[in-house]
Specification:
It is a single chain. Helix 3 packs parallel to helix 6 and helix 5 (164-181) runs antiparallel to helix 6 (190-209). The protein folds into two domains: 6-209, Ribonuclease Inhibitor (Leucine-rich repeat, LRR (right-handed beta-alpha superhelix), Alpha-Beta Horseshoe), CATH 3.80.10.10; 291-318 and 334-678, Methylamine Dehydrogenase, Chain H (7 Propeller). The protein is of the alpha+beta class and 679 residues long. The strands form ten sheets. The chain has a six-stranded mixed sheet with strand order 1-2-3-4-5-6, with no helix packed on it. Helices cover 16% and strands 31% of the residues. One of its GO terms (biological process) is establishment of protein localization to chromatin. Residues 266-280 have a biased composition (Polar residues). Residues 290-678 form the Leucine-rich repeat and WD repeat-containing protein 1 WD domain.
């Protein structure tokens, strides 16, 4: 028997009513209602209902035919909704809230903005300007791309006289192709874009070939051809898109002096000029890198203060692309969404638009590191879905676990009693998280997989004892379940992390020694560490002006017995870098493009294209490059003015490229994130 009866509706009316057709406001919250309890035949009698509260129930979707023609305000907070497209049956809806429905994402926000033409408030926020952009500019752009795709790839494939079978085949191929290849907007909105592209493509085919539209497709709104592509300031758009749940965004007014926007090609600093012999050698990488600065964001400010130039930014990682079935999502080759951390906040930024999509704050924390993993989670009805999870950690020694799509920090792990310097996930075991702490320990955790109510169980699997504070960690690409490498305050170490060994607490297995001014030494601070490929390690130590490239396979003797063995790093080359003795300016690599990046104390980014060297290094007889390799280019920091003033001295703490090397994200010591895009 349904929970909803005529008597219940009359009783829950505000004020109470004697007839269903007279009810204008109805409160059905906290009744444990499921979708099947919403009887369309009963609801069709609520002809004048304007306000409906369905919050704090168990609804996973809306029936398609509730027939509430005058509904203006709808509250669906705290349910289990998975889809919003059925809301199009309420065309007069002006105010809609569905907060704390963990399966709804930013894509759903955009869907309702398109479907509900009268919607003004979404989750308590005025979305009028953004909704107009979605309905008009977004639609016009996608329509243009869809028609261009047809003209280029499919128009000539259809004969002048075609059969119904040929039309059906062309339609199937076109819909599949257009959804795969038409890309627009940030990767975080790829689901919405595919949804709209399919809708537009079906309408286009209906007009061009006389094919019928799917019954669930909403016709595209006609656009004003004279309308500007966007009249909104990007910072206003960022404010419109963000602020969901515990997240909020703030972007300060940062401007770039136009004359300084171009990068300085192939130049070293005055103190490190290359000789003509070095500059003209055939080994020198010849790739011409050209980039334009896109955005400079001040989005980690304490208390959202525009005067905050003291918050240090430490870590940034690009969001992984979610799997689509058994293969990678073909729509996006690599993500353009990056997670950054510094001070009390973690931000998610769309590199193309400069939009701060989400912001997570902990007032008493200082975040030092972030890392991504992708978990397959069970949602309602025992169905499974993949979601990206972000781990963030810092001074408090606590790991925060954030389900980004749901805008929800669902748990924390009290991993260490001292600050956590860095974290990373295993590439082969998605729930395995390494945390490196100032307590001179590296811990391996199984963070578990949260259930549909976000219950999870984390367990510690391993503790690696270090002789000094670990600063950077890297899993060996060829055997990520067996060996971990760490750059520490007192040297570079390796551990056997294989879990079939009985010992839960383990000392290091090897310490590597590197050339010093006169001999080999193991005692030096290693504050930069990354793999360039499966074998080549890039490390930066306290030796001024030098970054080492060395071979893991030739340096580490896996056949040797015993722990705490000293091994000499087999150096392949040295990279010329700044002569500063300043520490903690870390490096990164882009393995797919064979690039190394490292910032300096003057706001510059040193870039090294090493594709001309790696083949020789990989050979069995690969010899060390006799000379230092100069940077391919140095990316100069532009002349910025923040609120009319130049920021103080800028240190580049970290610089990271996305896997496809389309974007370069630079984190500084003055609370400014810089984003460049490769031309």
């Amino acid at each position: 028997m349904s929970k909803i009866t005529t008597e219940l509706l009359l009783e829950r009316a505000v004020p109470r009513s004697t007839r269903l057709r007279k009810i204008e406001t109805l409160n059905l919250s906290k009744l444990q209602l499921k979708t099947g309890d919403l009887d369309p035949r009963l609801f069709s009698r609520l002809r004048h209902l304007q306000k409906l509260d369905l919050s704090d129930n168990l609804l996973d979707k809306f029936p398609n035919s509730l027939t509430l023609p005058d509904l203006r305000v709808l509250n669906c907070n705290n349910n289990k909704l998975e889809d919003v497209t059925a809301l199009k049956q309420f065309p007069l809806l002006e105010e809609l809230t569905y907060e704390n429905n963990v399966y709804l994402t930013l894509n759903d926000d955009y869907k309702v903005m398109f479907l509900l033409q009268n919607l003004r408030l979404l989750n308590g926020k005025d979305i009028t300007k953004l909704a107009n952009h979605v309905r008009r500019v977004n639609s016009r752009k996608l329509t243009s791309k869809v028609t261009a795709h047809w003209d280029k790839f499919f128009r000539d494939k259809l004969p002048e006289k075609y059969t119904a079978e040929q039309v059906k085949s062309i339609k199937k191929k076109f819909l599949k192709s257009v959804q795969t290849n038409v890309v627009y907007g940030p990767s975080s909105l790829s689901e919405f874009t595919r949804w709209r592209v399919k809708m537009i493509a079906e309408e286009f085919l209906a007009c061009s070939l006389g094919l019928e539209l799917n019954s669930d497709t909403e016709p595209e709104e006609k656009t004003d051809e004279s309308e500007e592509e966007s009249t909104e300031n990007p910072r206003e758009t960022a404010e419109d898109v963000a602020q969901v749940g515990d997240f909020s965004s703030y972007i300060s007014n940062v401007t770039v002096t136009p004359s300084k926007r171009k990068i300085n090609h192939s130049k070293s600093s005055p103190g490190n000029k290359r000789s003509k012999t070095q500059a003209n050698t055939k080994e020198e990488a010849a790739e011409d890198f050209s980039a334009e600065p896109l955005h400079f964001l001040q989005c980690h400010s304490k208390g959202n203060s525009r005067e905050d130039f003291k918050t240090q930014l430490w870590s940034c990682v690009f969001e992984p692309v979610l799997d689509s079935g058994a293969r990678k999502d073909p729509i996006v080759s690599s993500s353009r969404t990056v997670a950054t951390c510094g001070g009390e906040s973690v931000c998610l930024i769309d590199c193309e638009t400069g939009t701060v999509l989400k912001k997570y704050k902990v007032a008493t924390e200082e975040f030092f590191s972030v890392a991504w993993t992708t978990l397959t989670m069970v949602i309602s009805d025992s169905r499974k879905k993949t979601h990206n999870i972000l781990a963030a950690a810092g001074r408090r020694g606590i790991v925060k676990l954030i389900h980004v799509a749901a805008d929800f920090c669902y748990g924390e792990i009290k991993a260490h009693k001292k600050p956590i310097a860095t974290v990373c996930f295993s590439p082969t075991q998605e729930t395995h998280l390494f945390t490196a702490s100032y307590d001179k320990r590296i811990a391996l955790w199984d963070i578990g997989i949260p259930d549909c109510d976000y219950n999870f169980k984390a367990s510690q699997l391993l503790v690696l004892e270090t002789a000094s504070i670990p600063l950077r960690i890297a899993l060996v690409p060829t055997c990520p379940e067996q060996y971990l490498l760490a750059g520490c305050e007192g040297g570079c170490f390796a551990w056997n992390i294989k879990l079939d060994k009985g010992q839960k607490s383990r000392p290091f297995e090897a310490i590597f020694q590197f050339p010093d001014e006169e001999s080999m030494t193991t005692s030096h601070r290693v504050d930069g560490l990354a793999f360039l490929n499966d074998d080549v390690v890039v490390s930066k130590s306290s030796k001024p002006g030098c970054i080492y490239l060395w071979s893991w396979s030739r340096s580490f003797d896996a056949k040797g017995k015993g722990c705490q063995r000293t091994m000499s790093a087999v150096i392949l080359a040295e990279l010329e870098w700044s002569t500063t003795d300043m520490s903690y300016l870390t490096l990164s690599t882009c393995p797919a493009k064979e690039y190394v990046f490292c910032g300096d104390e003057k706001g510059s980014v040193w870039m090294y294209s090493l594709s001309n060297y790696t083949t020789a290094w990989g050979s069995a007889k690969g010899k060390r490059s006799e000379r230092r390799i100069s940077p391919t280019q140095i990316l100069k920091w532009p002349e910025l003015r923040v609120n009319g003033e130049q920021p103080p001295e800028i240190l580049v703490n970290n610089v990271v490229a996305d896997p496809a090397f389309t974007y370069l994200v630079v984190l500084t010591s003055v609370n400014i994130t810089g984003i460049w895009k490769k031309s």
